[in-house]
Specification:
The protein is an alpha/beta fold and 177 residues long. The chain is 19% helix and 36% strand.
Length: 177
C-alpha cells in the first residue's frame, strides 16, 4: 500500500485529553461543529475499533499526532488520516504516563466564551476591576466515540524509515505542521 494514498487531515484545532472517565480520552478539537460532525460521519464512524492506529511521535519539544485506519474501509467516503504537530504539554505527558492499553477517541468543539461577570459585580464583591485580555473557553465533547487499542508512543529517531509515520513526517511534515 502506498503510504501517501490517504488524505491527511490537519485543519483541526488540536488535540486534547480527558482523564475523568475510566478509560482516558483523546479529543480531536474543532472550532466548527458542522465540519467536525461531517468528518466523523463520513469517516471515523465507519472505522472498526480494532483497525484504528494512533501514534504519538516525539521530536524534541514537539510531538506528531498521527491517527488513521489500517487498510482501506469500503464504507468511508475517503481514506483519511489525521496528522498534526503539537507542542509537548503537561496534559500530553500526563496522558502518556497514565495510558493503559486503550483509549477512547472523541471529537470536541472548542470555542471561546465571553466573560459573563461584569465590572459592577466585581466592584460590589470588592474584587479588583480589570478587563480580561484572554477569552475563556468552553469544551463540548461529542457523545460518539471509538475505542483505540493500537496506541504507541515513539521517538522520531527510533522510527523505521519505511514506516507510514516516518514517511509522513518526512514528506508532509512542514506542510501540515
Amino acid at each position: 500500500m502506498d503510504k501517501m494514498e490517504k488524505k491527511w487531515i490537519s485543519d483541526f484545532l488540536g488535540v486534547g485529553y480527558r482523564y475523568t472517565d475510566i478509560v482516558m480520552n483523546v479529543l480531536i478539537l474543532y472550532r466548527d461543529r458542522k465540519l467536525a460532525i461531517k468528518v466523523w460521519n463520513e469517516n471515523i464512524h465507519w472505522w472498526p475499533d480494532d483497525q484504528i492506529v494512533l501514534r504519538f511521535i516525539e521530536d524534541g519539544d514537539y510531538y506528531w499526532f498521527i491517527l488513521y485506519q489500517r487498510g482501506k474501509n469500503l464504507f468511508s467516503k475517503e481514506n483519511v488520516g489525521f496528522f498534526k504537530k503539537n507542542q509537548l504539554t503537561q496534559n500530553y505527558l500526563r496522558f502518556k504516563e497514565n495510558f493503559d492499553q486503550k483509549t477512547i477517541l472523541r471529537f470536541s468543539l472548542y470555542k471561546s466564551v465571553e466573560n459573563k461577570t461584569n465590572d459592577k459585580d466585581k466592584t460590589e464583591n470588592n474584587e479588583n476591576v480589570y478587563k480580561r485580555n484572554s477569552p475563556d473557553f468552553e469544551l463540548n465533547i461529542f457523545k460518539r466515540m471509538k475505542t483505540i487499542y493500537d496506541v504507541k508512543f515513539q521517538n522520531r529517531n527510533e522510527l523505521n524509515s519505511n514506516s507510514i509515520e516516518a514517511s509522513l513526517i518526512k514528506n508532509l511534515g512542514s506542510q501540515y505542521a
